[in-house]
Design brief:
single chain; 253 residues; alpha/beta; Rossmann fold; 4-stranded parallel sheet; 8 helices; 8 strands; globular
Length: 253
Amino acid sequence: MLVREGAIAWAAGNRVMLVSPEMSAHQIELREDVFKARAMGVMLSHQGIFKGDPAQREAYRMYTDAVRGEKRWWTFDSWAGKPFSVTDIKMVAEQLEPQMILIDGLSLLRSEHKRDQRARWERMAESCEELKHFATAANLVIMGSHQSVNTNRGRRGDRDAAGGRGDDWVMPSLSDAADGDALVRNCSSIFTMCPDRDIENLRWYSVRKTRERHLKFQPRLALKWNVDAGEIEDMGQYGDNLGVIRTKLNGAA
């Protein structure tokens, strides 16, 4: 979802910086290529290029030729051999001047203090507050992903069991944010997500916090989810009408 939002901003001419403590830059860049290519009208398959499928060669060449020399997107998984800290993010951003910063795994940012013995929620609170102040002062967008934890929710693989995390199919609430409520306090907008219990290419989201007061709260809204092709389509206009949503997912007009 972060890559999708970044690709939209990038296609509109903005500069994007993605920091991923969660996975390697190479893994993220393959996802970026698929979403950015789609924004340019070039269809790629993430699995196809990951496996080196010859059928992807010509489309991938078209995309790489089009973006060669283009310097509006930067992806990092570490800095100076260590996980990123908020200070590192600010330092790199001052050099590159991105208009959007994406952080894949807010709780994985490195503490500024050596041998930090504080609880994880305390470190999380400090990071979120510093990122909030930085975004405001620099007048840029910072969007991050974070885990939710709720041991009373179920799993798609075992519908009657309490799962806790991973592929949980019940929509998280604000109180499910792992490591305390610092993220909730400091974000201007928050939406939560979960997979559908039965439909593989369907995800649900819910806007749980926003300064846009005109938005009406909806417990869940639909996303067509085909990340292999770089396609995440908002189907919120259909509410949670599964009949219409299934028809749209199957490609009917």
